[in-house]
Request: fold
Amino acid sequence: MSVSRRDFLKSSGALIVSFSAVSHAGIFAAGQGQFDTHPSHVDPTKLDSWIAVMADGTVKAYTGKCDFGQGMFTAQTQLVAEELCVALRRVKLIQCDTSVSPDQGTTSGSQSTPTNFNSQNLGQAAATAREALLNMAAKKFGMAVDDLTVTEGVITGKGGRRATYAELIGNKRFHIALSTTAKRRSPEQWTVLGKPIPSLDRAALMTGHFEFVHNFRVPGMLHGRVVRPPEVGATLANVDESSVRQIPGIVKVVVRKDFVGVVAEKQWQAIQAAQRLKVCWNSGIQLPPQQTYFDWLRQQPSRDVLLVDSKDVDQQLSKASSVLQAKYVYPHQMHGSVGASCAVADVTANRATVWSATQSVYPTRSIVAKLLSLPLDNVRVIFVRGSGCYGLNGADAVSFDAAILSHAVSRPVRVQLSRQDEMAWENYGSACVIEQRAGIDHNGAIIAWECAQWEAARGGRPGYSDPGNVITGALVGYKPEPIEPRAAAEPKAKLRNRSNAVPSYLAGCVADSCAGAGTIRSERVMMRTVAGPFFTGPLRSPLRLQNTFAHEGFMDEICAHVQADPVAFRLLHLRDERLAGVVKAAAEAAHWQSRPSPKQNDSRTGLAKGRGIACVAYEGDNGYAALVAEVSVDVTNGSVQPRKFTVAVDCGPISNPDGLRNQTEGGVLQGMSRALLEEVTWDAKRVTSVDWESYNSLFLGFAVPEIDVILVNKLDVPATGGGELAITLAAAAIGNAIFDATGIRLRQAPFTVQRVKDAYRSPA
Amino acid sequence: MTKLSLKVNGRLYALDVDSSTPLLFVLNDELGLRGPKFGCGMAQCGACTVVLRGQVVRSCVMPVSAVGKDEVTTLEGLGTPDKPHPIQQAFIDEGAAQCGFCLSGVILTAKAVLDEKPNASDEEIREALGGVLCRCFTHVRMLRAIRKYADTRKA
Reply:
């Protein structure tokens, strides 16, 4: 069913290929886009880079934010339909193709909604187009714009004069800049946006017709596999190419420094060749023992950032009637995509095209250009959806693998990683140690709070210039971005709580500007990054989840210490009304009973039940959520069974309530899996959690708790992210519920059966 | 290479392949089918699920030579986007997917258990799905869709 390459290139960008890729090429080569990224030939300041009205009245819209299952395809299609006043079915959204779409960096971090749905970019482009079309019609009719109405792509004037969008501009360029003043349709006017439109990919997905990058084929395509080192840090000694010469269909063994791969005619041949290839490696590094990893991490030299420091924390703590302190730890976890990552590359003498599930087509283009020593303009990266990624999974690395292998054989090559390659070498979520101290006054109020977070990191997103941030780039000789130890400077700029390192209850004051969500003014927060042994990178709610687990658990400890109700006591220390709003909404919906934790009537045998709450202002101001977890703990065997989750989310005007519910439900359960089971493991030399037997995840068989999602649809604020809200809270809320049920405080995730049992044996 | 014939979704294909090739790669690479997918290659996750002799099998570990004359049914063998099978329709109605990579395992396994046991309880359905992995955790909607299909099937 594969199309020819030429057909694909012709059809994928359609008219805009002739608009943008050809006529724009070179013209904007030196232009700097608004995205604080690299120059692109698709100028994001020009309307034609975003919107094209076709002669048949359909609208093509170009976005740099892509869909990997979180619903952005449908939501952005709704956005364009709404702002342009056309039917949903008339909008064809083209996602993330470096030849035709604007460079919007990376689709990540709950940034797609704030970026494209507020006053800039895609939404503003569609509004600019509507305004331009109204102006054209007004001129044509000799009427004022106020005398015109627009419905379904048809503009009507007084006396019934009418013009369709296609008549006004079909197949022609607008030749205007994105307007900052074009009027947006208000949420009260919305007829398409804000509605629970069924996701547009459903029928194709459910019937197996959807084309994933794993299904993507081009004529003449070969299959590649990589051979990764057996140990962390191992280097290549030698490869015996003759060991696979007998395998039918083998095309080439590709070696580049420590990178080893094979290319064959068929996938099965490539797999057998990769397994049988005799490769000798020099031994790798000695890994810090897993048992004492957090102590090791805590002792490493660190790169420090001080976020807030009121300079009086020690003084306030010395005056406090009691001081609490606690250390929370969070392990490396995996993206663990169901599908092993896959990409297709077609590299000829001086050109490369890569079909990739990357979240970052433009950065990937830059890295491929660098790896293959090609001019940037000769590389095209086209997004094709992969298995859900939840952040930086293997999609970038496998795109580089495919490019290197295709380059070596001058034919298109598809690479699909093995499960072990995926899991042993992905960029894991960061492991963290978070230490906190809080001072309580004689009235039981918090008067000071200090927090220090240590993060083990290595590499990360390659961005536009660092191939060595993922395994493939490192194997061919690039270093990951260095983490150079340095002392923290005094905070100067207004707090941006992007990693949620600052607990919600702090005022977050720098100089006279207080950007925190809370009331506590005696505050100090430090973030320390140390060079870890494993590649790390953004994993759904990066650092925000780890920090929130620690802060919300510690807040719960304080509540218990002063014997206060965890909801009421949180509200006492919150200044941010939207955060307080979701806390109240979740508590009310969960029929929260005001009382201190732990429950007094618990026994140490049988089934203990409890409830816990946690809340977050994601990245400080990018969405608000609170989660109430109700759990049962079987104290005889240590198993934790969440029974019900009640989650309230406020991310401003909601683009698609059904999509947000789906993300919220999935987020809670993914968070539950991470809270209860997930943890990367290793021995002295290598990662040992390399498949679904050795890395634990909840499968479909578990008893799914009831999930009650409360959407707070606030219309008078900018739209913010929603996909990472619920997951941020699961570990904290479950941990607090376990404490409520049993009196046992778990400060290390995941809350495995063994850890719960151990905690019973040696109560804190 | 071995010449063999393979019946898939009602069509008979003549193939010339290495007979040790896992069925999955034949379905994907030789027949261009998109439903079954490579997840782990070790029968751990279910993404490659197909139906053979009324049973769900993991096509990533089954050599194509082991299929014999029986028909293989993939996710696209149930229904089409225009005319989905009732269980696919239930998944569409409930929006029971995010990325959708796991759906062959989820839908075909659920259908198989209900074909065998039309009155299967929620617990029995869950148990049957215990070896299927969905990392987007779309469980709530998936189980709702399966329940809905089970109920309409009985009616």
Remarks:
- Chain B has two domains: 2-77, 78-154.
- The first helix of chain B runs from residue 23 to 30.
- Chain B has a mean pLDDT of 97.
